[in-house]
Structure formats: C-alpha cells, structure tokens
Amino acid sequence: MVKRILFTIVLTTVYFYNVESRESFHSDPNFSARENAYFLHQVEKGQTIYSISVFYGVTVEAIYKLNPESEKGIKIGESLKIPQQNISAPSKDAFTVKAKESEIKSETETETETEIIPVPEATINTASINVALLLPFGTVDRDADPSNQNQRLVEYYEGFLLALDSLKKAGISVNLHVYDIGNHAESLQTILNKKELKDNHLIIGGKTEEQIKSISDYSQTNGIWYAVPFSSKADETLVNPYVFQINPPQALLYSSVSQAFIDKYKEYRIIFVNIPNMADSQSKFIQTLQIHLSKKNLQYNELVYNASTFAINIREALSKDKKNIIVLSSASSTALMRVMSPLKSLKESNTFTDVSLFGYPEWQTYFKDHIDDFFLTNACLYSVFYVDHANENIRKFYETFKSWYRKIPTNTYPKYGLLGYDTGMYFIQMFHRQGTACDAFAEPMKYQSLQSGFYFKRLSEWGGFVNNNVFLIDFLPDYTIKKTVIK
Q1: Burial 421-433, CB ≥16 within 10 A → b, else e
Q2: Domains in the chain, please, with CATH?
Q3: 371 touches 379 (CB < 8 A)
Q4: Which range has the worst mean pLDDT, 7-21, 142-156, 332-346, 421-435?
Q5: Fewest CB within 10 A of the end CB: N or C in the chain?
C-alpha cells in the first residue's frame, strides 16, 4: 500500500534557478517567470525551432523573440534561450509554501503516472527516514555566482525529488530537510548549530573540501551517516567510519583503471600521444598507468604531437603485426579532434585496421560530435558515471523530469539530475532495508542505477566507505556499446 510521504524542506529562501539573474528565486510553486527569464538549450542534430518549441511547450514566436538570429536558421551545438513560461516547481505538487520566514513544510499526495525504476517491496524498516541535503545553492550569499555550478546543484536536488516520488510509491516514508549552506564557513556553521539537524539519519552534500571536512566532523561527533556526492579529493573516509564517498579518490580510481587497462590491452602495442599545451591534462592518470605497465614489464611507446608530422609519426609507431591502442594525454575535445583525422585516414585506407583509442569520462559529453569516430576506432573509455540513452528507464526519467520541470537535464559529466536520483534511490532504500547499524553495510546493496554504479567497500576498521564501482565503455565494430563493471 502506497503511503503518504512527508517532505520537510528547510531553506533560507525557496529557489528556482534562472541564468539571467540572482534574484530568480520564487516562493510560489506555481509561479510564472518574468518575461526575460530563460534557460539555455543546446541544439542537437535533426532539431528545428518547431520541434524544440513543441518539446518545451512554448511557441515558436517566443523562441524567436529571445533569439532573433534563429529566424535565419539554427546550427548543431548552438545555444538557444528558451523562455520559462509557466514553469512550475515540481508540477506534481512537490511542496506547498507556508507563511514562515525560513521553513517550508509540505505533503506530497499526487502520484506521477510514470514510475522510473520500480522499487522492490521491503518492509524491514517501516519508520520514516530523516535525510538532510546540505548544498551551496547560492541564496544566502550576496556574492554568490549565478553560474552553471548553481544550476547543476539545483538539478541534483530536482533529481533527488524524483527519487522520493518513486520511493513514496513503494511505501517508504522520508522526511527531507534541505539547507542552503552558502559558500562561506559561517553560513555552514549556522546550519550545523541547528538542533534539529541531529535528528537526521543521513546527511548528503558539501561541495568544497572545507565544507566536507566540517560536515564530516559533525557527522562523526553525532553518529550520523554522511554521503559525499561530488568531490573525489576528500580524505574523510580515511578517518570517519560514517562517511560514504560516491566519487572515488583519484589514486584509487586510476589504480583500478590501470589494472583493467593491462588486463585488456597487455597484448597490444601501447602508444601514448602527448599533446602539448592542453588545459585538460591527464598527466596523473598517465603517470599511474605507465608505472603499472612498468611493474608488469610491459613496453609502451610515446609520441609528442606535432600537427605537421603527426600523420607520419603515428604511422611509423603503429604495428602491423599486432593490435594497437592509443592513449591521449588530454581529455579535451580539441585533443581528440587533432588526432582523429589522421587515425580515420589510416583506418579507412585499411593500412592499419587494428587501431583503437582509450579515453576518458569527459568523452561522454562529445557523443553528438564524435560517436561515429568512437565506433570507427573501437574506442574504450572509463568512467564512474555512464548513461545508456537506449535504456527504457533513462527514457522514463527524461520524460518525468521534463514533465515536472519543463526542461531536460543539462549535458554535463556527470548529469546532476541523474546523480541526485541515483543517490536518493540507493541510500534511502539501503537504510530502509538494512537499518542504520554500522555492520548493516558489510554487503553492498544491489541497485539498478541510471547513471551511477555503487559498490562500497570500507577502507579500514576506523575508516569510511569508498565507491569502488567503475565502468569500461566499449564502442564495438557492430555499432553496439558494451558496458563492463570493474570492482
């Protein structure tokens, strides 16, 4: 039987992000945005002004008004301003504003028609689960930057709300408290001083290392579980047994990927291509991988990219007797474009057919421009996050997200709306099924994720849990994509 779920949302100000202005936070959940309020849409292949207008439920004329040049035509990759007309804070009655200055209490009773991921029935723990979401949304700081970072955090929160809606249908009761912790230490400390914060079973949030450290100290002192959703640099799992780190530390991630690389490509000719003056250098990963190769007595070759000679240099470096794998020193799209043309020529001429690329998580944001290149070069990339757009549950998520918020998730790595959804679904189900005792998490819980794989392991008797789940994504010659889990 579906139970009613209670959302208790505590904010300094109720907010909805608008790329135009800092003063774009509305207390009415059915507000109509100002005439100049908009968000950005990136044009994709096959889209027209009409199809975009239908998708967002706005008129063609409204888009033309904000984008006069679009009347002459639009191009793939171009950013269009989409008017926020009658956009509601979640349209399924996610919350109702009360008259108090800084507290919103609401009850969600309306059910959505589309269930994204069916929640297995579990009745181990029928009590309500108290969760606090602590994020720097930017409503409490006068110098807050209304950038894409704030928009991403709002999308994370929006995805989290969709998870609560799915969990509600399974009869899981959640009390959610949401706080804007700002960007300054004093803002966060004010929140941590609140007595009601101690009543939570789980705290999720923190963005900077300073924020994560403060929240971690608080969780350990008060015996409250704490999930770190974004940072991979925090060291709190080394000293705090109550911490879950979703994005694994770089050292652990690079070591796991390096071992998987060796298992997969130990019989290949391995070639590193160093592309100078690239902002997105992967030097730490390259260094880790080369150390692992040397320990296994596996040889590799190195090239320095030169635009005028690369086609000749790479041809000389490749082997005709064995398969070849190329690793670039940068994850940027610029680096990828520089090497792709010569590689495509080699592949298409049948001179060297066994040439593959090994790439990075950021490559997922280049799919619309390079997906054919990835299949042509049998590319493989590693990632903690991966979205299979052919998956039916992904389609349902996008439909529901658009229905609630009249927009689609921003094309970032990772997609923050999906990250919020997966985080909410995984941790709340885990507490519901297994309780909150320390030994309850000895065995990882199975969860069919949309984007984030979870496989937590405790680092030590006195340390916390780190997510050991990593994906290898292979683009196969038959134009299929294979996802392999590394644990």
Answers
A1: bbbbbbbbbbbbe
A2: 5-20+91-247+392-468 (3.40.50.2300), 38-83 (3.10.350.10), 251-383 (3.40.50.2300)
A3: no
A4: 7-21
A5: N
